[in-house]
Amino acid sequence: EIGLGEWENKTPDEINGLYDSKFKRWLRFGPSKIDIPGSEPVAHFRKRVDRQFAEIIKENIEKDNIVVVTHGGVISSFLAGLIDADFDKIILRLNLPNACVMHVSCLKGKAGIVNSIWPAR
Predict the structure, then answer these.
(1) Which residue among 19, 43, 100, 105 is the one 20 to 30 A from 113 at the CA level?
(2) 3-class DSSP assignment, residue 112
(3) CA 74, chain centre distance (Å)
(4) Measured distance CA(112)–CA(121) in Å, rounded
(5) So what's the pLDDT on residue 109?
(6) Distance from chain centroid for Cα 87
């Protein structure tokens, strides 16, 4: 998951109180629009996610199925890259809970088609 710097281990209410309602603005405008002290930049996080998924796919190219269990922010980043969509809109507008199931087909060693997404049960 993304490193949230000074926000780590704080509730949304604590963040809003300590950082001038920044969590409310984060929910309205998106992660890439809000500066969090000491946090990992969103662009760095997204590149890290892309590299890791490319490596997982490459290492498992001969397998029929791969399972990756991760957090909603990682799922959102992967999905945004896969469909060439805005990360902020994906994370704010889609309900992609932690460990939801996303079925993706790979073609020629690259993720290519989102077949379905559904919440984990």
Answers:
(1) 43
(2) strand
(3) 3
(4) 25
(5) 65
(6) 8
The residue type at 50: D
Cβ pair 47, 53 in contact under 8 A: no
Place of tokens 């993706």: 104
Burial of 119 (0-12, 13-18, 19+ CB in 10 A): exposed
Say how many CA atoms lie within 13 Å of 30 toward its Cβ: 16
- Global confidence as pTM: 0.82
Per-residue pLDDT tens over the stretch 23-82: 999 999 999 999 999 999 999 999 999 999 989 988 888 888 888 888 888 989 988 998
Which distant-in-sequence residues (6+ apart) come within 8 Å of 119 by Cβ?
Answer: 95, 97, 100, 101
Question: What's the CA gap between 110 and 2, in Å, rounded?
Answer: 23
Contact 15, 7 (CB under 8 A): yes
CB 49 within 8 A of CB 78: yes
